[in-house]
Amino acid sequence: MAHRGPFVVIEGLDRSGKSTQAEALIKRLQDEKIPSKLIKFPDRSTPIGKLIDSYLRSESELDDHVVHLLFSANRWEVASSIVKDLQAGTLVLCDRYAFSGIAFSASKLKPDSPEPPLAYEWCRAPDVSLPAPDLTLFLDILPEKAKERGGFGEERYEKEEVQERVRVIFDRIGEEVESAGAGRWLVLDGGLDQEEVEKSIWAEVKPLTKGTTAPIQKLWDKTREAAMLSALYI
């Protein structure tokens, strides 16, 4: 069977070191002469990404449903290129992916209601059939620890109580990914020193650098697909 490139995603709470670790990893891969590409979500350079950027900086207001669908559309903008790169033997590394979109949207609360405005299943529906990562590395960090890091609070979701709720949703997503058997979900301690986290990440990614013969899978269990798509239109 033909080898393809692996698909690796780095996820985590805000200020957990995702972007720093993604940059360090892509540099190491390139230094090792391993064909690789880094993608950051949201991609703020696209027309959709610019709308998202304005929203995240609190420069504009949008309905919660609209925001979530914009984030998903931003991923779909590059989904086909991810598949092409993988098939060409390139390791694709993503700084955030669909899991972040679901976690942040499903954790929202309205001040006048105890119920979240967006149901978890609804949030998951638009990303059904996106290419699934072979490995997702979740950098876990206590929100109070993240709060100590520089820049915390500059964007809309960087509030301690929001990060607590997001963390709970990420736990649920990780359990679903593991139970579905579509790729690995690995939790790493993002509160450790940067060099220690780098070593932990490289230990997991290095075995994948020779490629894989496994077919590219799609996000979410096929048996749930119809129900999730129906939820999108409720």
UniProtKB/TrEMBL annotation:
<keyword id="KW-0545">Nucleotide biosynthesis</keyword>
<dbReference type="GO" id="GO:0006233">
    <property type="term" value="P:dTDP biosynthetic process"/>
</dbReference>
<keyword id="KW-0547">Nucleotide-binding</keyword>
<comment type="similarity">
    <text>Belongs to the thymidylate kinase family.</text>
</comment>
<dbReference type="Pfam" id="PF02223">
    <property type="entry name" value="Thymidylate_kin"/>
</dbReference>
<dbReference type="GO" id="GO:0005524">
    <property type="term" value="F:ATP binding"/>
</dbReference>
<dbReference type="GO" id="GO:0006235">
    <property type="term" value="P:dTTP biosynthetic process"/>
</dbReference>
<feature type="domain" description="Thymidylate kinase-like">
    <location>
        <begin position="10"/>
        <end position="201"/>
    </location>
</feature>
<dbReference type="InterPro" id="IPR018094">
    <property type="entry name" value="Thymidylate_kinase"/>
</dbReference>
<keyword id="KW-0418">Kinase</keyword>
<dbReference type="GO" id="GO:0006227">
    <property type="term" value="P:dUDP biosynthetic process"/>
</dbReference>
<comment type="pathway">
    <text>Pyrimidine metabolism; dTTP biosynthesis.</text>
</comment>
<dbReference type="GO" id="GO:0005634">
    <property type="term" value="C:nucleus"/>
</dbReference>
<dbReference type="InterPro" id="IPR039430">
    <property type="entry name" value="Thymidylate_kin-like_dom"/>
</dbReference>
<dbReference type="InterPro" id="IPR018095">
    <property type="entry name" value="Thymidylate_kin_CS"/>
</dbReference>
<keyword id="KW-0067">ATP-binding</keyword>
<dbReference type="InterPro" id="IPR027417">
    <property type="entry name" value="P-loop_NTPase"/>
</dbReference>
<dbReference type="GO" id="GO:0004550">
    <property type="term" value="F:nucleoside diphosphate kinase activity"/>
</dbReference>
<protein>
    <recommendedName>
        <fullName>Thymidylate kinase</fullName>
        <ecNumber>2.7.4.9</ecNumber>
    </recommendedName>
</protein>
<dbReference type="GO" id="GO:0005829">
    <property type="term" value="C:cytosol"/>
</dbReference>
<dbReference type="GO" id="GO:0004798">
    <property type="term" value="F:dTMP kinase activity"/>
</dbReference>
<keyword id="KW-0808">Transferase</keyword>
